[in-house]
């Protein structure tokens, strides 16, 4: 077999193994290692490339962002800041049709800016928001759909684990990727709020709920106590990166320290909680390091096979336009989103399309935002919508089926698709802050 044939078979084998339940880094690493061995008929070369991939990943300075931001997010979650932001947002939106849904989106957007995890957002707001919406006579399908849809904000609003993973695969600045995610993340949150207003106006039965007229307003002091810690943390992290005072690693360290001080001041941090956060940070960091290492050897395997260049030649030979290429790219991500999780999609498709993006003089920062948003739609689509599964397992309510969660999330997946095409058409929206 030629290197091209081996490369194509290896990509199919990786997708098949991941879908069969094999751990993602294992599938990427083993298939890539064997493919290199077969292509060059040299076991030593394959082994040396594996050693180089491990060394390059572990010794990269910017990799320190992963444990720092992960620790910060865990501490913030345990400190109860998500619940506080939700209570303030609910007070402001409760008198609007679908207002608690809008409050959930707003709280999720703020929470995402200090956690960077869709799974954490889905878990927290399933417990906080869904019971309250059901108590206010909202349609259960709408209630879980709002949480599922808004949970994906955690993967686009910085600090985002997916943006970090992309930055390693594409060799881009983590800080630049964070800044590029700010405007698209805010756009998506605003689009969700607008969609809820439209649904409340034109499909009131799907939304359900009742408008509460006699809401008791919080005092200014109470609002400040619930919002200032989170807003201060966001300002330190993103403000430090934007002004250039802090690198992404330094911002992560400062954010982790401030989050720990907030948790101690609120008396939500015990020795046991602190130890659990450290252990979980270690587990998540090791898993991401394993992912990045496997992605590194996978990229080398694709380069040896010549697949990216072959793809570029095919599209150039057919005189494919910019929109044709981007449409194919989006369709591929949507298809893989029905089978794989976001990290898998990024690790598989980015090394394939990156040389093509560079050849067409596309901004790799903008290309990363498009990739993450496109891959995130998969969190809401069956059969492997991870956010939907997290919500179903967290809510533990027999009245709400997994189908209800997927159907409730469907309008929000459609909104994401619209925002994605807007971002493709107007790259400045992703690059304005850089």
List the helices and strands and how they pair.
Elements lengths: L2 H17 L4 H17 L2 H16 L6 H14 L2 H13 L5 H17 L2 H11 L1 H6 L4 H12 L9 H10 L3 H29 L1 H4 L12 H24 L4 H18 L5 H35 L1 H11 L4 H16 L4 H18 L4 H13 L9 H10 L6 H24 L2 H4 L3
SS class: mainly alpha
| Helix percentage range | over 70%
Q: What is the 3D shape?
A: globular
CA-atom Rg in angstroms: 22 Å
Give the assembly state of these chains.
Answer: single chain
Characterize the main sheet.
none
Membrane topology: Multi-pass membrane protein
Function: Part of the tripartite ATP-independent periplasmic (TRAP) transport system.
Transmembrane segments: 7-38, 58-77, 98-122, 142-166, 178-199, 232-265, 277-299, 314-332, 339-357, 363-391, 412-433
Pfam family, one: DctM
Structural commentary:
This protein has helices spanning 3-19, 24-40, 43-58, 65-78, 81-93, 99-115, 118-128, 130-135, 140-151, 161-170, 174-202, 204-207, 220-243, 248-265, 271-305, 307-317, 322-337, 342-359, 364-376, 386-395, 402-425, 428-431. It has 434 residues and is mainly alpha-helical. The protein is built from 22 helices and no strands. 51% of the residues are buried. The chain has one domain. The mean pLDDT is 83. Belongs to the TRAP transporter large permease family. It holds the Pfam family DctM. It is found in: Cell inner membrane. The chain crosses the membrane at residues 7-38, 58-77, 98-122, 142-166, 178-199, 232-265, 277-299, 314-332, 339-357, 363-391, 412-433.
């Amino acid at each position: 077999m030629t290197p091209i044939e081996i490369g194509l078979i290896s990509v199919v084998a990786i997708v098949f193994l991941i879908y069969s339940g094999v751990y993602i880094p294992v599938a990427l690493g083993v298939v890539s290692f064997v493919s290199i061995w077969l292509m060059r008929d040299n076991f030593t070369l394959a082994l040396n490339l594996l050693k180089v991939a491990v060394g390059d990943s572990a010794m990269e300075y910017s990799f320190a962002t992963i444990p720092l931001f992960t620790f910060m997010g865990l501490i913030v979650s345990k400190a109860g800041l998500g619940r506080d932001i939700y209570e303030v947002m609910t007070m402001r939106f409760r008198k609007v049709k679908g207002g608690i849904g809008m409050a959930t989106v707003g709280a999720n957007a703020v929470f995402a800016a200090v956690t960077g995890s869709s799974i954490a957002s889905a878990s927290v707001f399933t417990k906080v928001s869904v019971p309250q919406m059901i108590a206010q006579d909202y349609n259960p399908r709408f209630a879980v759909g709002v949480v599922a849809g808004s949970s994906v904000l955690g993967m686009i609003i910085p600090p985002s684990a997916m943006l970090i993973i992309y930055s390693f695969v594409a060799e881009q600045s983590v800080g630049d990727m964070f800044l590029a995610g700010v405007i698209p993340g805010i756009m998506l949150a605003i689009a969700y709020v607008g969609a809820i207003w439209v649904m409340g106006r034109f499909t009131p039965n799907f939304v359900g709920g009742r408008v509460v007229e006699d809401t008791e307003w919080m005092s200014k002091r109470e609002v400040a106590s619930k919002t200032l810690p989170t807003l201060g943390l966001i300002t330190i992290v993103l403000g430090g990166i934007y002004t250039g005072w802090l690198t992404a690693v330094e911002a992560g360290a400062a954010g982790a320290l401030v989050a720990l001080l907030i948790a101690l001041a609120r008396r939500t941090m015990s020795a046991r909680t602190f130890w659990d956060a450290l252990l979980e940070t270690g587990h998540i960091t090791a898993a991401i390091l394993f992912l990045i290492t496997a992605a590194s050897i996978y990229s080398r395997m694709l380069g040896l096979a010549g697949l990216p260049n072959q793809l570029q030649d095919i599209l150039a030979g057919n005189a494919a336009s910019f929109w044709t290429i981007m449409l194919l790219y989006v369709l591929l991500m949507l298809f893989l989103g029905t089978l794989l999780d976001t990290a898998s999609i990024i690790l598989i498709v980015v090394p394939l399309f990156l040389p093509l993006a560079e050849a067409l003089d596309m901004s790799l920062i903008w290309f990363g935002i498009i990739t993450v948003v496109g891959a995130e739609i998969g969190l809401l689509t069956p059969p492997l919508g991870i956010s939907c599964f997290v919500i179903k397992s967290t809510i533990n309510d027999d009245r709400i089926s997994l189908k209800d969660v997927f159907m409730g999330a469907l309008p929000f997946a459609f909104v994401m698709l619209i925002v994605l095409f807007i971002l493709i058409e107007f790259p400045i929206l992703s690059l304005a802050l850089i």
